[in-house]
Amino acid sequence: MLRKPSELVRAVAEKLARQKKLDIATVDDVIAEVETPKLRAILARVRAFVDSANLPSGQTEAL
Question: Burial code of 41-54, b = ≥16 C-beta within 10 A, e = fewer?
Answer without folding.
Answer: eebeeebeeeeeee
